[in-house]
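$ ./design --mode recover --in tokens.txt
reading tokens...
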């Protein structure tokens, strides 16, 4: 044994210690790596669970969203059907009341054969609009239900117009058109709603309302007056070219009307050919 000990040098022993130390370090490193791998595996498992939960939640939300969409579509269909039924009912009531009450003609002084008043013409003294000769309001009737009859709404608006209460008058005429869009007075009501704007010196709004009239009631006996008033509204807005075109249209489409006569006078004043 002593002989063997004498054969091993100090350098060899130190090298052996270093080798053992290196092995221990490698063992520690491997242990740490294994520990890290286990932690990563756990993290992956947790992440997988969370992703699965989120996917299930999204699927549930998608299903609920589809259900809500179908419910909204069903409600929209019911609302559309209800609106259609209400419109039909309103039309039936208006037609029945028109036949019963004998509402058949517009007031003679409003929209008759005479020329339309000049754009922005001032009302009578005190802000009221003077009554035209032969003015006959729509026949008054007793309401058959909880709301006023068509003639009552129209006559109330007409009275407000004559007294210069143009905001109230316009609202009344608009209410009439909305509630009773297919009576003999519907186009007249919309015409006078536009005239309320003109009386308040708001030609742009008047122009838009005259356009509504011509679009909704192209065969109206107010068409020639509405076209003339559109031309005058363009003049009030400083839109000379559009005014000339509109006035020439009146002359061409309604050559024998009083509106055409007024249009020719305006065109001559503007230095334009009225032919």
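writing sequence...
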């Amino acid at each position: 044994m002593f002989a063997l000990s004498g054969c091993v040098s100090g350098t060899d022993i130190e090298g052996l210690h270093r080798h053992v130390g290196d092995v221990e370090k490698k063992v520690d490193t491997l242990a740490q790596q294994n520990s890290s791998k286990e932690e990563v595996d756990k993290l992956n498992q947790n992440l997988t669970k969370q992703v699965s939960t989120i996917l299930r939640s999204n699927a549930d939300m998608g299903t609920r969203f589809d259900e809500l969409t179908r419910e909204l579509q069903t409600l929209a269909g019911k609302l559309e059907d209800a609106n259609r039924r209400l419109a039909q009912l309103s039309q039936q009531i208006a037609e029945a009341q028109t036949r019963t009450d004998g509402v058949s003609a517009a007031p003679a002084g409003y929209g008759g054969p005479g020329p339309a008043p000049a754009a922005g013409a001032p009302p009578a003294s005190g802000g009221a609009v003077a009554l035209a000769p032969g003015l006959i309001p729509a026949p008054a009737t007793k309401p058959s239900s909880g709301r006023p009859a068509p003639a009552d709404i129209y006559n109330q608006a007409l009275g407000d117009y004559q007294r210069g209460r143009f905001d109230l008058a316009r609202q009344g005429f608009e209410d009439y058109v909305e509630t009773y869009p297919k009576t003999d007075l519907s186009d007249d009501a919309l015409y006078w709603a536009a005239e309320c704007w003109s009386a308040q010196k708001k030609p742009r709004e008047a122009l838009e309302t005259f356009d509504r009239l011509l679009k909704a009631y192209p065969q109206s006996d107010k068409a020639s007056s509405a076209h003339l008033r559109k031309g005058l509204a363009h003049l009030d807005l400083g839109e000379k070219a559009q005014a000339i075109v509109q006035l020439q249209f009146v002359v061409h489409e309604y050559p024998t009307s009083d509106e055409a006569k007024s249009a020719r006078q305006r065109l001559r004043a503007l230095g334009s050919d009225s032919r």
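exit 0
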